Amino acid sequence: MTNHDRFASVFRKHAGEEFTSVGIKRKMLDESDIAEGSIRPNDHAEGNASPCGCAKNKGNKPLFDRIGPRLYRVRGC
Q1: Which of 67, 75, 4 is nearest to 40 (CA)?
Q2: From the CA atom positions of the chain, what is the Rg in Å?
Q3: Residues 11-34: tens digit of each pLDDT
Q4: What whole-number distance in Å separates Cα of residue 7 and Cα of residue 19?
Q5: What is the DSSP letter of 76?
Q6: Which residues are within 8 A (CB) of 26 and not within 5 positions of it... i.e. 6 or more apart?
Q7: Angle of the 3-11 helix axis to the 21-31 helix axis, nearest 10
Q8: How far is it, in rounded angstroms, from Cα 51 to Cα 45?
Q9: Cα separation of 77 and 37, whole Å?
Q10: The sheet that has 71-74: what strands, in order across it?
Q11: With contact defined as beta carbons under 8 Å apart, do 23 and 77 qualify?
Q12: Is residue 4 within 8 Å of 63, Cβ to Cβ?
């Protein structure tokens, strides 16, 4: 499972909800086996110039819309 898959699995049921980067980190640590240093919400957000490799290479869509500083809205995963 890729990190992108881990994010999608955790946030699939939260489409339309807003989370801070801290809130995303907490959910990922509580609900997945991802390494703490790999939790980078910006890498999975719309408009990031350097998205996660799995999103870029597999053609996956961004999982979050950046709506403010350290604030994200979950897209449909």
Answers
A1: 4
A2: 11
A3: 999 999 999 999 999 999 999 999
A4: 13
A5: P
A6: none
A7: 100
A8: 7
A9: 22
A10: 18-20, 71-74, 64-68
A11: no
A12: yes
Q: How far apart are CA 68 and CA 77, in angstroms?
A: 20
Task: Please tell me the pTM assigned to this model.
Answer: 0.85
What digits encode the pLDDT tens for the residues 38-74? 999 988 887 666 666 655 555 667 889 889 999 999 9
Using the CB atoms, write b or e for 43-63: b if 16+ within 10 Å: bbbeebeebbebbeeeebebb
DSSP structural state of residue 16: T
Q: Cα(60)–Cα(49) distance, rounded to whole angstroms? A: 15
CA–CA dist 44, 31 (Å, integer): 17
